[in-house]
Protein: Lysine--tRNA ligase
Organism: Haloarchaeobius amylolyticus
Amino acid sequence: MTTDGDADETTSDAPDSEAISPYTLQREEASETRHAFWADTVADRVEERNPEEPIVIKGGISPSGVPHLGNVNEIMRGYYVAEVLRDRGYEVRQVFTADDRDPLRGLPRTLCDLEGNLVDLGEVDAGALGRNLGAPYTDIPDPFGCCDSYGDHFATIIQDSADTVDVPIELVSNTELYESGDFEDVTRFVLEHQDRAREVLSQYQDKVDEDYVPFNPICEECGKVTETVTSVDVDAGTVDYRCTDMDAGDQTIDGCGHEGTATLREGKLPWRFEWPAQWQLLGVDFEPFGKDHAEGSWPSGQDVARNVLEIEPPVPMVYEWFTLEGEPFSSSAGNVILVSDVLELLEPEVLRYFFAKDPSKARDFSIERLDQLVDEFDRLEAIYFGEVEADEDEAAFAERVYPFVVDEPREERIRLPYTFAAVLGMTDDPDLREEIARREGHIPDDAPEWAVEGALKRVEQARNWARRTGNEFDYELKRSEIPAHDFDAETEAALAELADFIEEGHEPDEIQGEIYETAKRHDVDVGDFFGAGYRLFFDEDQGPKLGPFLAKVDREFVVDRLRRER
């Protein structure tokens, strides 16, 4: 959830005797049922309200730029609560608002096309964006020329991101809600009670004075959102305005000075009123949001809901943000990754598992250590099917969560260990990949074809991971012909002896140790001997840990290559 920028100018949290803490998971009551899965705790809170069906779960984003993996947090947290409620027999809608009538307040340094390719601002029509500062996202031309507007472009990517992880959101455009008149009744109500609205908001924002009007018209002359309303005609459903300057962080967006009249469909509510208005309009029962809103928009939002709109706010839940490689997500700094990028590296169910973890704890999403996340998921799956030992808490979590993470639990599924799959990715030969996986015991003889195909898909994903990170598996096995080499007699004799050892059949660690011992026996520098191995198999001077690699490739090929026979 992001806002249109007016959430930062706060004074203090106003007193509210009915205030609901948004720290739903952090502050469980001692009398509450303890669940294995956090989403059950939230679902209990929703059920306590005896909601009408369909139960509505909401999220939202201001489509101001690259919709990266961090933005999916809200979608996935809402999804799990929705799934738990569906599991309990309720009809549920998961809506996600594109707050696309927000004004563009600054030029992003990085954008992305619909395929997820990141581009610098200079690679698109930056001038068109600069001329539209202050205008609603849906009134700004798409810099890529493929969608109806800037807002529609990034909303499309949000929808695509949800689709790729099979989360059925209903994407709702704020602009469409205003233009269709859906927002008109609640907007009129706020303006009818603007004295009360002003009184409530003044407890949270310094800029609220006696002239403040909770409506931002769109200037008919320059197309920018303005905050200066000079009069209101509630009966006619219009406001008079003057187009004045807008503060946007460290810059000012110039207004054109035009004086005009706008209808209630030709503008927007300020964020502090728009958010509660969405709750009323959409009938929202639960909404998760980031911790920035916990001390900002949420306190004022629930106050506005009760004391201006006269509705009950939804069940809230604060989630912790997660980082990428230990740093905050940042489009301007290039520290972003899209859902489409992640799904080139792992299965959708692994990504879904990441978001199933406790949202009250901060976590890091690391591409470098992606193998650890995949291993975690594989363990969860194995626990669910009773294939590994687990403590009571682990078993309860797996039993509850796993069916929500996968499309269908199937015990016959096969998961190749991620780093082993990366080793297989060193060869392009699909038959060889399967042959090695079978020989290593990762694919049973009686495995169904669909399970084999699914298992081998991970090879390409692990290979992409190796190439993206440039790690120890980012090498190509030279299988078709022996790379050019020139070894002295001692090295050739050592290679022949190592071939004999491997031909006998030994474990990876034993082979690794024998490489050292063989080099010593033949008075060959250990580093040079490893280099000889890398030269023969990769045509490189370095490579993965050699012993485990040689143990995983088909033995006959390894022996022949060490003897320089093929």
User: Anything to note?
Assistant: The longest strand covers residues 55-61. The CA atoms of residues 188 and 235 lie 9 Å apart.
